[in-house]
Amino acid sequence: KSELNYLMHHELLKESTDNKIQFIHQTFFDYVYARTFISSGKDIADWLKNIHQGLFIRSQVKQIFAYLRDIDVRTYIQSLTKILTKGLSALSTIRASLEGLRPAGSA
């Protein structure tokens, strides 16, 4: 409860008109989601194969990769390369969103 009060006091969370608590911005939610995802130890390629890849998930995927790049470059490159080059047909809809994250010099 004190954490919730802290986040609301510092305007990182807000209460909606229907008494639901939400993040102030989608980007902040995506960042928190990325940190939680990475700390869980899940494999992003495996996770992506098993979820719907609509518009909602794309910003989260980008944030997961951005966060991973900051904390573990080697795993970032391995994971991104796996998705972009291994012919994982289930991931075709997400590839275009990730092309801009490809490390320079990788094929």
**Strand-pairing-aware structural class:** mainly alpha
Distance between the termini: 48 Å
Low-pLDDT residue intervals, each spanning 5 or more residues: none
The total beta strand count reads 2
> Could you say which overall geometry the principal axes of the C-alpha atoms support?
elongated
Largest sheet: 2 strands, antiparallel
Radius of gyration: 16 Å
Strand content: 5-15%
What strand line-up does the widest sheet have?
1-2
Mean pLDDT: 79
Q: Helical amount among residues, as a percent range?
A: 55-70%
Task: Give the SSE order as H and E letters.
Answer: HEEHHHHH
Tally of DSSP helical segments: 6
Give the arrangement of secondary structure elements.
Blueprint: H1 2-9, E1 13-15, E2 21-23, H2 26-40, H3 44-49, H4 55-71, H5 73-85, H6 92-98
Antiparallel strand pairs: 1-2
Helix pairs in contact: 2-4, 4-5
